[in-house]
Amino acid sequence: MRDALWAALKTVNDPELHRDLVSLGMIERAEVEGGVAQVKVNLTTPACPLKGQIEGDVRSAVLGVPGIQDVVVTFGAMVRTGGQPALPGVKHVLLVGSGKGGVGKSSVAVNLAAALARDGARVGLLDADVYGPSVAHMLGRSAERVTANAERKMQPLEAHGLRFLSMANLSPAGQALVWRGPMLHSAIQQFLKDAAWGDLDYLIVDLPPGTGDVQLSLTQTIQVTGAVIVTTPQDVALIDAARAVDMFRKASVPVLGVIENMSYFVAPDTGLTYDIFGRGGAQKLGGLPLLGEVPLDLEVRKDADAGAPAVLAHPDSAAAQALTGVARTLAGRVSVQALSHLPDQLPVV
């Protein structure tokens, strides 16, 4: 019966990877006792957007095996890389960029990181917007200072289940940094290579707006898994977002998709929807996948000022649910990209 069970599992495909769970090495355990099958599936990310579909497909396939009356499906997760890790212990570096300021890039980056951490991933967040750091404030840790560990490496701070570094925790509050390119490059190098990030599934990098020195330093320093572009729907934002897309492509950084922020507004008193900045403009960005539309929501701003990401403070709000969906979709795309470079048959765990 065990052979029949494994044969049934081999008919179940991962919905995103379009390969069966057995050849992908995602089945950690499959055994039958007393007519009950026990199956443990190791997902490619804790934030798998299609976990429910996988569970349903496994149950359907296994219950078709003669002699099996029930199946118990449990899940683990193992984020994989398509090659060498970007940094020691860091599996994926994901850049969050925009062509211009004011599109909510930092709040999106913070909420993506918090959503992935809440789902069980090990997440770091690097505030690379050196001139205008805001991540520490949005996480409620702007008063804390970064220290060094015994190996004289910067020790990332912790908040809401994730690790982060920001210039706001290294320089006096309100002090302007008047730095030229070489100093920015040195700072980015230190944030990446002289920090004790530990073991991370994802390091989310909140970039400054535009296409400047920080972006170039990052893409030239480490192997980046991919970038996402945050934009609002109106043409003036899309014009600059297209420039950011072009920059990443020239730097050979895969653009995993676009997030349309402030996509629409739902009036709390009437429930009517208003497209304040237009809607659907992100779909014009060179055929890039749309990772999600995030509504304009007052709670997101309030939560950011209070130092609590909206996905944690108000998880049932429309914006928080949209951001959670974006995070899971992004994690799925990272898995697809990583596993597309792996051999057809992986060893069974």
Automatic annotation (TrEMBL):
Residues 2-74 form the MIP18 family-like domain. GO terms for biological process: iron-sulfur cluster assembly. Keywords: ATP-binding, Hydrolase, Iron, Iron-sulfur, Metal-binding, Nucleotide-binding. It comes from the Bacteria. ATP binds at residues 99-106. It holds the Pfam family FeS_assembly_P. CDD domains: Mrp_NBP35. InterPro entries: FSCA_dom_sf, MIP18-like, Mrp-like_CS, Mrp/NBP35_ATP-bd, NUBPL-like, P-loop_NTPase, YlxH/NBP35. GO terms for molecular function: 4 iron, 4 sulfur cluster binding; ATP binding; ATP hydrolysis activity; ATP-dependent FeS chaperone activity; metal ion binding. Homodimer. In the C-terminal section; belongs to the Mrp/NBP35 ATP-binding proteins family. Belongs to the Mrp/NBP35 ATP-binding proteins family. Binds and transfers iron-sulfur (Fe-S) clusters to target apoproteins. Can hydrolyze ATP. This is Iron-sulfur cluster carrier protein. The lineage of its organism: Bacteria, Thermotogati, Deinococcota, Deinococci, Deinococcales.
